[in-house]
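Can anyone check this?
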Amino acid sequence: MPAMEHPSTRSPLRGCQRAPSRNPVHGSSGSESPRARGITPALLALAVIAWTAAMAPAQDDLRDRVVKKNGKVVTGRIVVPTAPKELLVLQGGRRVRIERSDIQQIDRVADRVREFCERRLKLKGSPRAQWFLVEWAESRGLPGLARAQAMLLALDDNHEQAHEFLGHRKTSKGWLYAHAGRNLSRAKFEAALEKKNFEIVGERFKVRCDGRVRAAVAALLDLEYLGVAFYDRFGEGLQLREALQPVLVDISYSDKTFQKWGFRPQPYFRPPPHGDVARTFYRGIAPTRPERLFFVATQGLLYRSLIGEVNQQSDRDRICPWLEIGLGMHLENVMEGPAGFAFPGRGRRNNVQASQTLSRGFRMSSLLHLPMYGGYYLMDDTPTATHWAASTMLVTWLLDKDNRPPTRDAFFNYMRQALGDRLGDSSTLFDRAMGRRIEELEEPFSKWLVEQTKK
């Protein structure tokens, strides 16, 4: 297998770079949710054509497989996997529609990614099983994940088969890594990579970093499990499109090299057309995971799968800022585990954020209209921290399945309209979608917050 090299050789981390090219569908749509707005299959197909019209053609990605009851097999990429009546399958420039009633079996890339992530976690303590996963991923059309897994084994365990898989050269002094036409020791290889950016490509994510190779590889593997959790939790309820192009997560070596967006270094996402990149950084001397990695990555997935490309004048403008912040931080709190082996858990303790939210000096209705930059990034002060906490806690509460009266299904309805249909941060929309005026939620929300402070 090819070895890791620098971008100047067109193969940044060649062990994780040559994933099969993806169909250009990008999620840059103003499409409406079929469930929320009753879009017909024909209109959905037209929407997909609009998404791809302005994008350069790419080679076909035919890794999803649909077996029909008549025995015919259709390959391509499924746009909305949870569409209730009809699947739209992309085959490069061709679009095939298949009625649900005609389908016998579906084999998707996303299902293989889920199995890969679940097996990695379950077999974490077995080096033999971890190597088996490299071969497993490669044989199932997931070369990016296979190479990322092999790189982690090479870096952590000096695993011989992993080195060979990546094309590294063995000498009496140890393994040499290919870089810019030279074979370098690990120390010299890592030092060389700190001078210029390198990239690692998975399925739903691509990581770009200016150093800390091991941490960057671990971040990619963590992000892939985040993608699984994101679609498991929100895919059907929001009728999400699959992320057929990976979200770029740009990680700076430290907060000194990080491109700030406000008063102090704070991870953020720049949506298309202004940037289409999630930015974060490593903090401290020996960090293992970038700051708010899952937060910025969730925002990227939201734009790929639901919001699309929005014609905003500035990258500071957003459709519904509090919801983007709250959803991102909700998933940030859900993901647990050490770097490289993150997994969706029960959620971190919310007592601190709950206390901050209880101390707020504004009503919930005011939270709905906070601007992204001015409300969450411009200043480094107590009110700003409270805005972050309140948005996180409100989303977490509204998603709680145990709320009485229930809020979760109504909240999904609100999210589909606010983000997917781009109706934004209107209080009227919130009241109508939730079936109650937002003022009526103040009391139950406050009671829930009090309970959270006791945990």
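Reply from J.R.: I decoded it. The two ends are 50 Å apart (CA to CA).
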